[in-house]
């Protein structure tokens, strides 16, 4: 099963993806984690994208599409991928559909975690205080939220039209959101 966890930054996608990895053996494909790893390693790619992440803008589609393509065989072998933070543009979603189709696969479900903006801002302030991730600082977070609203939210009708979108309340506890996800997945074969 290939699943997209969809939602704005700080919606809880990473937390829920990690639980699904532990419980279901699926592979989490987080382009944000991959880009941060590239930056930490000092690779050419890392140097190329660091400024973009620091500003809170999106990196170009070709970069993230290539990162995902590299990891698809591994996810396939594990029985499925949880896409976390990808796709973030309609072009990325189209590229993902094409890459999966080429391998005889598809997206089975898109689960949208709905969290209102004041709650996101509160969560991110807490995460910034705890972890100090540079792009969680309040000014950059506004840019990230803007990118979500302008470039990523238009994916909702894309997946709605494919009949794959399920909307879930992401405001509750980690356990409550996990239960909602499990409920939604029980009807996906
Ligand atoms: P995240 O950890 O998913 O919030 O991603 C952190 C940052 O990495 C984002 O603010 C973007 O700069 C970049 N990024 C991650 N995933 C993507 C993507 N699918 N497309 C473009 N940029 C991305």
Give a topology summary:
Layout: E1 3-6, H1 13-24, E2 27-30, H2 31-41, H3 44-55, H4 61-78, E3 81-84, H5 90-102, E4 109-114, H6 117-131, H7 138-152, H8 155-161, E5 165-169, H9 174-185
Parallel strand pairs: 1-3, 1-4, 2-3, 4-5
The structure holds adenosine monophosphate (AMP).
Adenosine monophosphate (AMP) binds at residues 9, 31-32, 35, 52-53, 56-59, 64, 85-88, 92, 135, 144.
What report would you give on this structure?
The chain is built from 9 helices and 5 strands; from the N terminus they run βαβαααβαβαααβα. α2 packs across α3 and α4 runs parallel beside α5. The chain has one domain: Rossmann fold. The model has no long low-confidence stretch (mean pLDDT about 95). The protein has about 190 residues and is α/β, with parallel strands linked by helices. The protein has a 5-stranded parallel beta sheet with strand order 2-3-1-4-5. About 60% of the residues lie in helices and about 10% in strands. It starts with a strand and ends with a helix. The longest helix has 18 residues. It binds adenosine monophosphate (AMP). The site of adenosine monophosphate has 18 residues, from α2 and α3.
């Amino acid at each position: 099963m290939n699943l997209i966890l969809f939602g704005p930054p700080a919606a809880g996608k990473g937390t829920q993806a990690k639980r699904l990895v532990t419980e279901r053996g699926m592979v989490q494909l987080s382009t944000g984690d991959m880009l941060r790893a590239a930056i930490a390693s000092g690779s050419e790619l890392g140097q190329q994208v660091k400024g973009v992440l620091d500003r809170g803008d999106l990196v170009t589609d070709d970069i993230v599409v290539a990162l995902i393509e590299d990891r698809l065989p591994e996810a396939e072998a594990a029985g499925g991928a949880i896409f976390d933070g990808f796709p973030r543009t309609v072009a990325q979603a189209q590229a993902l559909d094409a890459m999966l189709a080429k391998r005889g696969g598809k997206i089975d479900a898109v689960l949208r975690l709905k969290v209102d903006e004041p709650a996101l801002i509160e969560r991110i302030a807490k995460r910034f205080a705890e972890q100090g991730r540079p792009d969680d600082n309040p000014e950059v977070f506004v840019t990230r939220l803007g990118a979500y609203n302008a470039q990523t939210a238009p994916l909702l009708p894309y997946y709605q039209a494919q009949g794959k979108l399920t909307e879930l309340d992401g405001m509750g506890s980690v356990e409550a959101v996990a239960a909602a996800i499990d409920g939604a997945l029980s009807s996906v074969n």
